[in-house]
Design a protein that fits this description.
By secondary structure, the protein is mainly α. The chain is built from seven helices and no strands. It starts with a helix and ends with a helix.
Length: about 220
Amino acid sequence: MSGPRRRARRFVRAWDDLRGRSGRRVVELVRKQVAVARAGAVLARSTASGTIGRSAARTRMTEVEHEGDAARAELVRVLRRVLATPIDREDLFRLSRSIDDVLDHLRDYVRETDLFGPEDLGFAVEPLQAVSDGLDELETAVLKMIDDPGSVTVAVLATRKACSRVRQLYQTRLTELFTGPLDMETLRERELLSRLDAVGRRLGEAADELADAMLKRSH
């Protein structure tokens, strides 16, 4: 690329930063990553409820994971080029990584249901619904970063509440399992419950990272 063209592109990026367009582009890319993770949660819940077969869900989840990887890669690419971001670059990287971790654990859950899951996955419906609800609230929080930063904390707290619900359901079901016979079905369900708990913990980390970033921004 010639010198004049390179300078022209830098000027355009700087002008976009001054008008706030770059910040909104970053927010939209984070929102897209959250939306893809929510699609993964919905797919996992559909498997638990029997709406879609496990093998078919595993195939579809591979596609969802690729969408998530593409969204994260695009965010990283944009962050390397823009001058201004709604929160610190490092915080955006951490937030993006935690959202990616949520999707990774959802992928592993779907794969494990196909590989060795118990016959009845009904126990996973409520936790996965809580994950979907939490991702909805996280998406709301992300969208408020620029225009309504003061209300981000409320949406983040709602995300944390959904994560607490996942942990509560995990502990309750685990207690029920331990009161019954310890057989192979019990062990399979316990493994999947642990995976769902990991999903909730990663989602909680994403919420905490966004809350910390917004607090840092206000100082």
